[in-house]
Amino acid sequence: MISFFFTSLFIFWAIFGSFASVLIWRIKSGEHGIITGRSHCPKCQHILWFLDLFPILSYVCLGGKCRYCQEKISPIYPILEVMTGVLFVLSGYFLVDYNLLLTGSTIEIVKLGFFLSIALISIVYVFYDILFMEIPDEVLIPANLILFWLLFLVSTGIQLPIFWHFLPFQNEVLNIPIINALLGAFGIFAFFYFQIYISDGKWMGGWDLRIALFMWLVGGAKIAALGLLLAYFVGSIIGIGILLYNRNRNTEVPFGPYLAVGLYLSLFWYTPIVAWYTKLFTL
Questions:
Q1: Which residues contact 138 (CB under 8 A, 6 or more apart)?
Q2: Given this model, what pLDDT does residue 218 score?
Q3: Would the pLDDT of 247 be above 70?
Q4: How far is the CA of 93 from the CAs of 69, 101, 164, in angstroms?
Q5: Terminal-to-terminal C-alpha distance of the chain
Q6: Where are the domains of the chain?
């Protein structure tokens, strides 16, 4: 039963990966009708049929080419769809109680919807950053405002189970969800702004500030702090690999994907990572 559930989750939510790809390209091009507009081939502009839009399988069945003009379809589409499905499955596995979900628990259903929404937003800004070295304000600014509003509602006593993963402090004031999130958000904003200022934007761009705020609003201070450390760790390793391969020190590397990786590593494995690190230095 559990295999069927997660397989269905992957297949169903891969459809949202297809939607994410449309969203990314239409935000960049400024094309209208993000929600209602018909999908079309970017080369020949031919309106695509339903069977041309089936996630992953359409790309494979068409041999990676447009049915109408035979131009190659970018492999970024199936990669994005696969990554969306994988991230949704991992979010459902690590962040939601599967057994309670099957009983129809409203709490688990709300949590699942919340974390899948966060995953979709993450996929959009990660691939947008990879493709264009930019962050879509059209997605992150509304997301951050909505998260701030939800945190405010929870902090006033309204029962919403979407921030129960915030890790507590000993100080009760710091455990108020909106203070927990904004405490870290202010710190990371200052940290990033300092780097941007002294490097004149060469080390990282202003867009990374929006992602940092998103991290803290999603994960709270402790999870986001670990996520930031992991982002720098992963980024440094991959960055060294890129330099060894490319040997061009002026190569620009988007930092948004590393921030997303750090956030999800800390969301999924905060406790074992901290336990391993603590044990490492207490031997």
A1: 27
A2: 94
A3: no
A4: 41, 11, 16
A5: 42
A6: 1-132, 135-283
Structure tokens at 227: 């996520």
Question: Would you say residue 142 has pLDDT above 70?
Answer: yes
Calculate the alpha carbon distances from 68 to 44, 59, 65 in Å: 8, 13, 9
What whole-number distance in Å separates Cα of residue 152 and Cα of residue 18? 32
Q: Which residue has the higher pLDDT, 3 or 121?
A: 121
CA–CA gap between residue 9 and residue 87 (Å, rounded): 10
SS3 labels along 101-158:
HHCCCHHHHHHHHHHHHHHHHHHHHHHHHHHHCCCCHHHHHHHHHHHHHHHHHHHCCC
Tens digit of each residue's pLDDT (9 = 90 or more) over 13-68: 667 777 788 788 888 877 665 555 667 767 777 777 666 666 677 777 878 887 77
* b/e sequence 152-187, b meaning 16+ C-beta within 10 Å: eebbeeeeeebbebbbebeeeeeebbbbbbbbbbeb
For the chain, the residue count is: 283
pLDDT of residue 106: 92
Q: Which residue type occupies 7?
A: T
pLDDT confidence bin for 118, thresholds 50/70/90: very high
Indicate the DSSP class of residue 48.
P
The answer to whether the Cα torsion of 10, 117, 228, 171 is positive or negative is: negative
Residue 132 and residue 119: Cα distance in Å, rounded? 20
Specify the long-range contacts of residues 123-126, CB closer than 8 Å, at least 24 apart: 123/17, 123/20, 123/80, 123/83, 123/84, 123/87, 124/20, 124/23, 124/24, 125/211, 125/214, 125/256, 125/260, 126/256, 126/257, 126/260
